[in-house]
Write a structure and sequence with these properties.
3 helices, Ecdysteroid UDP-glucosyltransferase, signal
Amino acid sequence: MKFVLISVAFIYFLNPLEGVRILGVFPGATHSHFILGHTLMKELASRGHEVTVISAFPQKTPIKNYKDVDLSEILEESDGM
């Protein structure tokens, strides 16, 4: 059993860590609720993760590893109803 644990630990430490794909969904129309999630998503992107965020508040300047899916037009249309 010790051999198995040592082997697993050895293989685990030989593999370099890689980023993952993360999807953040923030459908609310209030910017104050979006700020907390946005801060977290930006930090994850800066650490090498591939982040996609669905919200009504797209970035003004592009961020590496961070992709926006803009919902602002949909929210503007729903406000007119």
